[in-house]
Amino acid sequence: MSIIVSSIGQGLLWAVLGVALFLTFRILNFPDMTVEGSFPLGAATAVTMISHGINPYLATLTALIIGSIAGLVTGLLYTKGKIPILLAGILVMTAALSINLRIMGSANISLLNQKSIFSSPILQHLPKNFDSVFVGFIIITIITLSLMFFLQTEIGQAFIATGDNANMAQSIGIKTDRMTIMGLMLSNGLIALGGAVIAQNNGYADINMGIGIIVIALASIIIGEVAFGDLSLNGRLVAVIVGSILYRLVLLAVLSLGFSTNDLNLISAIVLAVAMMLPQLRKALKFDTVIKKGVTKHD
Amino acid sequence: MTEPVFSLKDIIVTVGDNVQILKSLSLDIYDGDFITVLGTNGAGKSTLFNTIAGNLAIDSGQLLHHGHNIAHESAVARTNYIARVFQDPKMGTAPRMTVAENLLLAENRGRKRTLRSRGLTKEKLTEYAQITQVMGNNLDTRLNTATGNLSGGQRQALSFLMATRVKPELLLLDEHTAALDPKTSEQLMLATNQQVTQNKLTALMITHNLTDALKYGNRLLILNAGNIVLDVRGDDKVALDEAQILKYFIV
């Protein structure tokens, strides 16, 4: 039981990444590799600040700002520097490795005996593992509600139009470069915030913790879409959160089969690949017609 | 005559290896002009539109808007007063957004977008139902449909409504009925004419349809090899027939 609670908690904490990546991957319609750099950047910033005695909430917010700067750099390389988005993201992700080492001073910093957002007195009364469920739920709720509100504002709609049809957006006066940069800043800021929170939950920051992040974030988006199909925009954001939890439960199931945590990246990749191929497979193997046949009467 | 709204003076536009597409072209566009533009492929019609809209830089000459040179204004800045409908129905609308959302977006052309709620109210939807009904292609029943699921004719009608939602000082229609089947095309052409005349819009319309070019508008231009070879208005335009026009097409 406690292991399932822990998975739900992890799912809620990691859902921040899925929702953040949704802004670029689904709304702006491009894959942003920057996230593999902004995630450990957020972790490094927050953990280093906390280990220097700075308030953990302030440290977490600073991570958000630093992450959005990484997004700003990618955005400028892409829109003004005319570097393809995939490469722009990889450049910033690579550069972030060095910056993270500079920030942390070593490859790994522990938060042992330091106060984090998980040391809040309220959380101490909760049963084991419920602290990550509680914190994860509050953070993802605030972020998702804010995004739902933002996407329905005039600027939010202009942002959606930019990803949907940049030509048309420009023809009605939307500054699409600005919208793209804003989306990248918002997305990477949130990813870094996720990094800060997850590092505090783990109790350490590690230079390599960004590897495979984009796959995990994508997995929650795709699993949510495969599980729920056509939804409104707000519904899709919620589906990402549920997708993130489902992903953790799938991992739990796979690990209980006897795989080790060293296999996690391989498993993540396989889970994502399967989820992405599912609609194809469903068509090829005629799942839908077979299932339909199974539940209708024989005539 | 009064001051022209737009004035092109000796405009030269070259692309690629010094190929002049517009060769010292001059044109005055007056308030309320509905100008049909004819010309063979490569005559420079689209280049003329791209130049006015700001998608192509001019090499020499002036582009005046109320006497003020706008040659260095960006395309996005010019959308404050210029609207455009493209030939390709996919170009003018956001496919994953609904018809109503698209119209709402277009309503903010020329205005600063803020963090205010977009304000898609019941009143707005009623208003949109009215303006889309005019197009006569059931667009009014599909206000909450993603535009990607509309027919080409419906999308193009929507593009047109979006371009005219905020009255532009100049409306550029770039063969906007060409990609549609004959019936839909005629329907949209009729609706276009009705809107342009009713709302006294100033418009330039590229077409390859000689009948449309003669039937609609108060002024007709023929472009050939980067210059205007015929510019007639009013009664002179009415007196024109297809045979006379075809003579200008011989290079």
Automatic annotation (TrEMBL), chain A:
The chain crosses the membrane at residues 12-30, 57-78, 85-112, 132-151, 181-201, 207-228, 237-258, 264-281. It comes from the Bacteria. Keywords: Cell membrane, Membrane, Transmembrane, Transmembrane helix. CDD domains: TM_PBP1_branched-chain-AA_like. It is found in: Cell membrane. Its main location: membrane. GO terms for molecular function: transmembrane transporter activity. GO terms for cellular component: plasma membrane. Pfam families: BPD_transp_2. InterPro entries: ABC_transp_permease. It is a multi-pass membrane protein. PANTHER family: ABC TRANSPORTER PERMEASE PROTEIN YPHD-RELATED-RELATED (PTHR32196), BRANCHED-CHAIN AMINO ACID TRANSPORT SYSTEM, PERMEASE PROTEIN (PTHR32196:SF69). This is ABC transporter permease. It comes from Leuconostoc gasicomitatum.
